[in-house]
Design a protein that fits this description.
The protein is mainly α and 361 residues long. The protein has a domain of 110 residues. Helix content is 46%, strand content 0%.
């Protein structure tokens, strides 16, 4: 009887003590949560014991979300984290290759590639907060070309203002999805975390690479056909002296004086060819050519075919002149080589005959 009473008393004591402990932080003082709780709709999105990128211990499985802060103290209120502290907090998760929310699964995440010291990424020393804000998880809007340009414009204000007034910027502001934004021209991997300095030889905006960078969009029929823009621009440019000179020049920036896309069309301020403010508008073309060709006039500018290929129907004089010189050059080289070989052979045989006759005599 006494034993039964003791068991009942012990059970009652446990039941009475449980509610009193439920809302308290354990006495051992667990580590504080290293990031803000603002905008985090669920802890399990990152800390699921099975599939989380930073999984909680297996024994946490099944516990309600409301129980997280019973043991894990939230960040100290009133104490703002430094940029370095906030950045390290972000990287603690986003360096994980399985964190496919922000990077494709691979040996290195997008974030980790940016902070590698051996890469020439321009922003690898910039903290996360200036671009992503203090509560990035609260922002549910998908990153687009337009929003990326706005973020870049927080620092690059002049460039953003010029870009917004360009043909690319106006298209993006109108809801277009094809026009070039910052990452299309400045990123080696198509993400804001891989922006490379323009003067780096690996940059898509480096002078010798500009034409190929523009061709990523301007050589695509399915894109350019929507806007009536010719798609042979890259092919026709590479067929000119300018294109060949830029490819054959050394990689140093000083060795690339020849015209490329940005020399004639601008870069952040690209406009339609028919725009009166465009450098390649008919009224401005002679002046644009004159920046490299002093004294160039309207007749010089009129010789430009506007990135269109010469065909028997289009620019027939140019087409047949080109064909004539092509076949003339090929004939001279081919038959000239054969003729020189025959002359040398005949000369050798004629020199050998007298020597043979003298030997017999």
């Amino acid at each position: 009887m006494n034993r039964l009473v003791a068991i009942v008393a012990l059970a009652a004591a446990v039941l009475m003590a449980a509610p009193a402990h439920a809302g308290k932080i354990p006495a051992e003082g667990p580590q504080r949560i290293p990031h803000t709780l603002q905008g985090t709709s669920t802890c399990l999105s990152c800390h699921d014991p099975v599939q989380g990128v930073r999984p909680a211990p297996a024994d946490h499985k099944g516990r309600p979300i409301s129980a997280c802060t019973l043991c894990h103290a939230p960040p100290e209120e009133g104490k703002a984290a430094t940029l370095q502290e906030s950045t390290e907090s972000c990287r603690s998760c986003h360096r994980n290759g399985n964190f496919s929310h922000v990077a494709d699964i691979g040996p290195k995440t997008d974030i980790q590639r940016q902070v590698d010291e051996d890469r020439a990424f321009a922003h690898h020393r910039i903290a996360c907060v200036p671009c992503h804000g203090e509560a990035p998880h609260a922002d549910t809007h998908k990153v687009t070309k337009r929003t990326v340009a706005t973020k870049c414009g927080q620092c690059h204000r002049d460039q953003l203002a010029i870009h917004r007034d360009s043909v690319h910027g106006r298209s993006l502001e109108a809801g277009g999805k094809d026009a070039a934004s910052c990452v299309d021209c400045h990123s080696t991997e198509g993400t804001p975390h891989s922006i490379v300095r323009v003067l780096s030889a690996t940059s898509p905006a480096y002078r010798s690479a500009v034409a190929a960078t523009c061709a990523r969009c301007h050589a695509r029929d399915e894109v350019m056909s929507k806007y009536g823009v010719p798609t042979e621009v890259y092919k026709t440019y590479m067929g000119t002296f300018h294109g060949k000179a830029n490819v054959l020049s050394k990689y140093e920036i000083t060795q690339h004086p020849k015209a490329t896309c940005i020399s004639c069309h601008g870069f952040h301020d690209v406009r339609e060819a028919a725009d009166p403010k465009s450098p390649v508008a008919p009224a401005n073309l002679a002046k644009t050519c004159g920046t490299c060709h002093p004294g160039a006039g309207q007749r010089f500018a009129a010789s430009w075919m506007g990135h269109k290929e010469a065909t028997p129907q289009q620019y027939p004089v140019v087409y047949w002149t080109e064909r004539f010189f092509f076949y003339l050059t090929a004939s001279v080289l081919t038959f000239g080589f054969i003729f020189m070989v025959l002359l040398d052979l005949v000369s050798t045989l004629l020199r050998r005959k007298p020597a043979t006759a003298e030997a017999k005599g």
